[in-house]
Amino acid sequence: VQLQASGGGLVQAGGSLRLSCAASGRSISRYVMGWFRQAQEKEREFVAAINWSGANIYYADSVKGRFTISRDNAKNTVYLQMNSVKPEDTAVYYCAAGSTYYRSTDYTQYDYWGKGTLVTVSS
Predict the structure, then answer these.
(1) pLDDT digits (tens, 9 = 90+) for 22-37
(2) Which of 69, 77, 99, 102 could join 51 via S-S bond, C-beta 3.0 to 4.6 A?
């Protein structure tokens, strides 16, 4: 599976941004899809994950209530809607696919990764 994240950019605090992750090479319908982020000089951290059907979703506490993950298996795409963004959301955002449990926050449990997209939130 090849993954390509897009939609990053510069946004003001309180604004919104929608990230997309387009997959190719194989259907993602069998995989848990996750979003992770990595700020400068920090560890990669879990943001959100969604199971194969979309019925089960899990968020990091830091983004709960502000971010929404969704997927469209017919389009082989996963989304991350980011609302009420904060400067601390600034990071490179990565999408990933894995045969793992949707509540797993361990990035090593994911098998496929895309190149990240940079999100910068100005105060």
Answers:
(1) 999 999 999 999 999 9
(2) 102
